[in-house]
Design goal:
The protein folds into two domains: about 10-100 and about 215-275, Rossmann fold, CATH 3.40.50; about 100-210, Rossmann fold. About 45% of the residues lie in helices and about 15% in strands. The chain has helices spanning about 20-30, 50-65, 80-90, 100-110, 125-130, 130-140, 150-160, 165-175, 195-205, 215-225, 250-260, and strands at about 10-15, 35-40, 75, 95-100, 115-120, 145-150, 180-185, 210, 240-245, 265-270. Helix 2 (about 50-65) packs across helix 3. The structure holds D-glutamic acid. D-glutamic acid binds near residues 16 and 153. D-glutamic acid (DGL) binds next to helix 3.
């Protein structure tokens, strides 16, 4: 049986690396009272070129590690994990688990004007068909084009998010979308919003670029409020812990630049040993 969670406990989020910070940023903006613990599995990034079985094994280790921080909600800030491992995580975790696919698909379905939705993701997310199925259900008349863009992940991890290199990569992946009636591009990987400028430049100003992070943060807010789990205002400021599994200095540099704030610390953890 699930034990009742403590409203003052932190929200846990995880991704393969810096990508899930795009979700953390929206959580910090919309739920400023909440404590958070973010885990980036930088030792094993990328996840998006791996099989569903391996992704699920890694995801369960991250979930277990964050559970040891007594979190009250687990946000899977990774599309690849959300596509393959949500049922396994829901079964293994004693707390609510929120993925990013359903909120992202809802946001894109609300945005399209009956045209074509292009969903961009890792090879593993695209191969799973999870977005294609969700979009077909939520926007039955829309045409869906799915495109794997694996090189966006190392560019984001490296912090190469502006300038010629990301623009050329985006051009190579996406230039044909300009001729295919696409009115909405859904960023189906949490790393991709870091490259949103380069992507928008290539698809053009008339195409809406949708990032599911805002919708995921909104879903988290609703879930906490409807379960009586929102942190009460006790006059203290929220604490934010950041963990990663390799190269904390590099992680910190990219994370601080992206979040626009200094991190209290970046702790190196080993997921093989579960506890914090
Ligand atoms: N950011 C992740 C996602 O949303 C995974 C990227 C990767 O590790 O390949 O799918």
């Amino acid at each position: 049986m699930r034990s009742p969670a403590n409203p003052s406990a932190p929200i846990g989020l995880f991704d393969s690396g810096v990508g899930g910070l795009t979700v953390l940023r929206e959580i910090l903006a919309r739920l400023p009272r909440e404590h958070t613990v973010y885990l980036g599995d930088t030792a094993r990034v990328p996840y998006g070129t791996r099989s569903g079985e391996v992704v699920t094994r890694y995801a369960l280790q991250s979930g277990k590690h964050l559970a040891a921080h007594q979190i009250k909600l687990l946000i899977v800030a990774c599309n690849t994990v959300s596509a393959h491992s949500l049922p396994a995580l829901v079964g293994a975790m004693p707390i609510p688990v929120l993925g990013v696919i359903e909120p992202g698909a809802r946001a894109a379905a609300a945005r399209t004007r009956g045209g074509t939705i292009a969903v961009l993701g890792t090879p593993s997310t695209i191969a799973s068909g999870a977005y294609q199925a969700a979009l077909q259900r939520l926007a039955p008349t829309a045409k869906v084009v799915a495109r794997a863009c694996p090189l966006f992940v190392p560019l984001a991890e490296e912090g190469w998010v502006d300038g010629e290199v990301p623009r050329l990569v985006a051009e190579r992946y996406l230039s044909d979308l300009r001729r295919s009636g696409v009115d909405t591009v859904l960023l189906g990987c949490t790393h991709y919003p870091l490259l949103a400028r380069a992507i928008a430049q290539v698809v053009g100003p008339d195409v809406a670029v949708v990032d599911g992070a805002v919708a995921t943060a909104q879903a988290a807010l609703e879930l906490l409020e409807s379960n009586g789990l929102a942190r009460p205002d006790d006059g203290t400021t929220a604490r934010h812990r950041t963990l990663c599994t390799d190269l904390p200095d590099r992680f910190r540099a990219v994370a601080e630049r992206f979040l626009g704030r200094q991190l209290e610390s970046v702790e190196l953890v080993d997921l093989a040993f579960g506890a914090p």
